[in-house]
């Protein structure tokens, strides 16, 4: 594409209604899909790739007048709305699951309302953007941090005519996985003892139950592995370690009791393959799951510690950015939103914080004030750490931040879980927004976009993501039966990140933490978190926490991706495998959500 001359630069398409509307629509769809995916897989997937591919096909292919920077506005909006869902889905489900657990055990749950939680999400959405604005010039223009995902999206935006082919592959993936999910939902292939509720028993009467010989027939799982490739192997290895090494040793040494009586300890979803594998239930509930939680916590905390050098660098960047803006006058300010916007945004977010906390039962005015001030300060610090860490490694230590945030606020707010969750949601949404905003600004930097336009649109629309994600969690939870909810342990959506958070909160409240397993797992995760491969402890902890049937499908996808990359090269991976895999994820997620909505409307 030829760059416009100075005489026509005013007419060069960048911030257009078409890009804004398309970005909002894509953002909402991706938010819905990836909330579902995160509840199943335990981690989220960025939506920039999907938005960039679809944007090219519609803006350039259909409207015949799209530009690279216009498509960049589209993907900036879409990824911002989508990313807000990640912060919500890693935290809020813990409140629902803990409430259900307490009602079963004590007959009394947690009184909470959607409105304080929504205000927390809105506050995080605003703060995540405004706190990053002063850092853009320093981190991207001067420090030239890598922001690998931002670079990858810039490459997609610059691919030219291949965008149409990628869009076709994306739609093919959506169609294939949607149809397959529908077949699984209708149970057209079900066979008792072999295939039920998407679980395929692969034991063939030979493999013992302690090896968890079940695979979840989810194209989403495989597609996530296809996208991750070699980088996803630690996740797969964690599952192998848990179920093909630790579990058999535990059974052979009698650590989990007499196998003949393990059915007493088992707890399964009625009608699933797992009904016939009580050994799995006992191992998962009494050993593997708590070990996984401990490993996840240890790895997440080490991730925060490893990121500590980024604190100094981030504050240096903030200081340098302030000096740059103050000395640059109007010329510098013309590419950035005004510092007044930052100040107004921070004040507005603190007000939302305050009222969100005050509206929660049992919180005084003083506690709400403490919550808003401490929450904002901690949120700013966490955002700086995560933005710097993302820029250097593309790894976001969100799990550790969520655990620290909720635990800190429970201490300050007398174990008021609902009030602590308001801050936890805000922090996770904000740090996700900050990291995503910097990735998008890196993309814009590489293709010649104006940062002020990206900042402006994300500031205006990012709040939509928190609203959609909270609504989806309420809807998915309502699809469950018997008051147990539609996600959590024993369902098709195990919500591992939120489940680990719930385990910590429950342990703090009731003093029933399995200290030995948490300490053992925490030590393992802490050591793994110090490894050169970023996020190793968190990945292995998640793999141990998730049922191996899910992890196994993901690992198969990783191995297939590595084979195809070696055989066909990077171009095949980027131009064929990535769009097809993204479509497979979106298609299954949308069909799953669609089925949930249909069941609710039909009263079932």
Describe this entry's structure for a reader:
This protein is mainly alpha-helical and 604 residues long. It has helices at residues 17-41, 48-62, 68-89, 92-106, 114-130, 136-142, 148-157, 162-186, 219-228, 233-252, 278-306, 308-333, 339-358, 365-393, 398-412, 417-447, 451-461, 463-478, 496-510, 515-529, 536-545, 548-568, 570-601, and strands at residues 195-196, 199-201, 214-216. Helix content is 72%, strand content 1%. It has a three-stranded antiparallel beta sheet. The longest helix is centred in the C-terminal third of the chain and has 32 residues, at 570-601. 57% of the residues are buried.
Mean pLDDT: 79
Quick one: overall form? Answer: globular
The major sheet is characterized as: 3 strands, antiparallel
Q: Which consecutive residue ranges, at least 5 long each, have pLDDT under 50? A: 1-9, 259-276, 328-333
What is the beta-strand fraction? Answer: under 5%
Sequence of secondary-structure elements? HHHHHHHHEEEHHHHHHHHHHHHHHH
Q: What level of helicity do the residues show?
A: over 70%
- Quickly count the helices: 23
Radius of gyration: 24 Å
Strand order of the largest sheet: 1-2-3
Terminal residue distance: 53 Å
Tell how many strands the DSSP assignment holds.
3
Q: What class do helices, strands and sheet pairing give?
A: mainly alpha
């Amino acid at each position: 594409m030829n760059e416009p001359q100075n005489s026509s630069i005013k007419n060069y398409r960048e911030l257009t209604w078409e890009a804004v509307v398309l970005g909002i629509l894509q953002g909402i769809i991706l938010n819905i899909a990836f909330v579902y995916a995160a509840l199943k897989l335990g981690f989220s997937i960025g939506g920039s790739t999907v938005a960039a591919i679809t944007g090219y096909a519609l803006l350039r292919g259909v409207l015949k007048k799209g530009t690279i920077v216009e498509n960049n506005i589209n993907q900036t909006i879409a990824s911002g709305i989508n990313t807000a869902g990640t912060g919500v889905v890693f935290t809020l489900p813990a409140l629902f699951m803990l409430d259900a657990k307490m009602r079963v055990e004590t007959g009394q749950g947690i009184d909470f309302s959607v409105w304080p939680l929504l205000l927390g999400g809105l506050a995080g959405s605003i703060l995540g953007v405004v706190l990053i604005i002063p850092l853009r010039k320093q981190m991207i223009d001067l420090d030239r941090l890598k922001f690998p995902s931002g670079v990858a999206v810039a490459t997609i935006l610059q691919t030219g005519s291949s965008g149409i082919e990628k869009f076709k592959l994306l739609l093919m993936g959506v169609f294939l996985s949607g149809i397959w999910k529908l077949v699984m939902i209708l149970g057209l292939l079900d066979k008792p003892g072999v295939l039920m509720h998407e679980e395929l028993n692969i034991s063939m009467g030979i493999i013992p139950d302690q090896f968890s010989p079940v695979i979840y027939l989810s194209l989403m799982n495989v597609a996530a592995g296809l996208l991750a490739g070699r980088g996803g192997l630690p996740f797969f290895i964690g599952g192998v370690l848990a179920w093909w090494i630790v579990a058999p040793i535990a059974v052979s040494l009698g650590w989990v009791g007499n196998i003949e009586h393990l059915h007493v300890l088992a707890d399964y979803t009625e009608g699933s393959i797992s009904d016939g594998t009580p050994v799995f239930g006992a191992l998962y509930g009494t050993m593997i799951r708590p070990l996984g939680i401990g490993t996840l916590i240890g790895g997440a905390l080490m991730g925060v510690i490893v990121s500590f050098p980024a604190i100094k660098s981030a504050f240096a960047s903030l200081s340098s950015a302030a000096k740059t803006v103050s000395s640059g006058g109007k010329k510098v300010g013309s590419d950035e939103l005004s510092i007044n916007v930052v100040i107004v945004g921070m004040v507005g977010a603190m007000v939302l914080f305050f009222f969100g906390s005050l509206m929660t039962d049992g919180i005084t005015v003083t506690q709400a004030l403490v919550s808003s001030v401490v929450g904002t300060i901690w949120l700013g610090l966490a955002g700086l750490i995560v933005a710097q860490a993302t820029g250097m490694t593309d790894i976001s230590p969100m799990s550790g931040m969520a655990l620290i945030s909720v635990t800190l606020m429970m201490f300050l707010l007398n174990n008021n879980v609902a009030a602590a969750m308001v801050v936890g949601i805000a922090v996770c949404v904000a740090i996700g927004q900050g990291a995503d905003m910097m990735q998008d600004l890196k993309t814009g930097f590489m293709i010649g976009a104006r940062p002020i336009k990206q900042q402006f649109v994300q500031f205006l629309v990012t709040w939509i993501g928190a609203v959609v994600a909270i609504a989806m969690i309420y809807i998915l939870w309502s699809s469950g039966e018997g008051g147990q909810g539609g996600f959590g342990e024993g369902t098709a959506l195990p919500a591992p990140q939120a489940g680990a958070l719930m385990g910590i909160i429950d342990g703090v409240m009731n003093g029933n933490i399995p200290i030995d397993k948490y300490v053992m797992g925490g030590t393992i995760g802490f050591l793994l978190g110090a490894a050169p491969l970023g996020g190793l402890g968190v990945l292995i902890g998640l793999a141990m926490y998730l049922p191996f049937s899910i992890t196994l499908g993901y690992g198969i996808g990783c191995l297939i991706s590595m084979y195809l990359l070696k055989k066909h090269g990077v171009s095949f991976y980027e131009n064929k495998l990535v769009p097809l895999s993204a479509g497979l994820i979106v298609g299954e997620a949308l069909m799953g959500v669609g089925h949930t909505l249909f069941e609710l409307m039909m009263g079932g």
